[in-house]
Design brief:
This protein is of the alpha/beta class and about 325 residues long. The protein is built from 8 helices and 10 strands. The chain has a domain at about 95-300: 3-Layer(aba) Sandwich (Aminopeptidase).
Length: about 325
């Protein structure tokens, strides 16, 4: 019995020591940020107006005044008490980008033209996000050509919270590649990094690690593959212009291989496209809910470094 109690006490002591160690590390990082005179502050949002209006009660009735010979003036009309307006923050703004368009048809295979199917999927994603209470804007809603840089600029000018680009994949003539994969830029363009520092009130020379796009990619990839039943080809790094130049977390989703005969047939069906769109939307909403709870999630300080030159892929997928 004594041996058992001794072992239990040792285990409890080890757990307590680990807890204290992790707590010390957390507060050390926090104090380092404080000592640097900086804190990461990101805007939050509420998707629905909270019912927090407060009614200020009427003031207690005044005591009657002493009678006098002069007639009393009529009492002023009662004024209703002021009511505090509920604090309402705007819902998150998500840009949905349908790849290609206009003179840029994208890939063509098995009777599918990428620009058309990408637009159909993007519209479905936008509709589902709006139904979830998200504010949505699209880079294009018809067969229009928009330059890659301008797509990113549209999101940046609007102050978008997320950017989702929808594409279809090809395998260079091979018919065996299939599945969904999601891309993100491991490091944004210099202009986007400087804009982020200004947004979160950091000094220009400060260093910061932003893993939000990677987190977004992982979340959407998991949800869309689970919902659609497509093969999960994973999350990949690529400096595509639309995800590289956007300030906000941004991803590019390759929603299937049109060079695969079976997958192309699936993408021709409304039911499969709806499943893909639902998976993307579900992943976006899950990511937003996590950020809603902790707006600075995915942002960390790092030692100041010399900025590296841009390494952008000037073409899209």
């Amino acid at each position: 019995m004594n041996r058992f109690l001794s072992s239990a006490f040792r285990s409890a002591a080890m757990l307590l020591a680990l807890g204290l160690a992790f707590g010390a590390l957390f507060w050390l990082n926090h104090l380092q940020a404080k000592m640097a005179g900086e804190e990461i502050v990101m805007k939050g949002w509420r998707w629905k107006a909270p019912v927090t209006a407060k009614v200020i009660p009427h003031a207690p009735p005044a005591k009657p005044e002493a009678k006098s010979a002069a007639p009393l003036s009529p009492a002023p009309p009662s004024v209703p008490p002021p009511v505090e307006e509920p604090l309402v923050e705007s819902p998150p703004l998500v840009f949905v980008d349908a790849g290609h368009g206009g003179m840029d048809g994208g890939a063509v295979a098995h009777g599918i033209t990428e620009k058309n199917t990408a637009l159909d999927l993007a519209k479905r994603v936008a509709k589902l996000l709006e139904e979830a209470g998200v504010t949505v804007k699209m880079t294009r809603e018809d067969d229009t050509f928009i330059a890659l840089e301008e797509r990113a600029n549209m999101a940046n000018r609007a102050g978008a919270d997320l950017f989702i680009s929808i594409h279809l994949n090809t395998s260079g003539g091979e018919d065996d590649a299939r599945g969904i994969e999601t891309y993100y830029a491991p490091q944004k363009a210099l202009s986007a990094r400087l804009a982020l520092r200004e947004l979160i009130k950091m000094n220009v020379g400060s260093g910061i690690l932003d893993s939000r796009s990677e987190r977004l990619a992982e979340t959407v990839q998991r949800f869309v593959c689970r919902k659609s039943g497509a093969q999960n080809r994973g999350v990949k790094e690529r400096n595509y212009a639309v995800v590289y130049r956007t300030v906000c977390p941004s991803i590019l989703v390759e929603c299937g291989f049109i060079t695969h005969s079976g997958e192309a047939e699936n993408l021709k069906t409304t039911s499969h496209r709806e499943k893909v769109a639902q998976g993307v939307a579900d992943g976006v909403v899950a990511f937003l809910r996590a950020q809603e709870a902790d707006p600075s999630r995915g942002l960390k300080f790092k030692a100041p470094v010399t900025e590296t030159p841009d390494q952008e892929l000037l073409t899209g997928p």
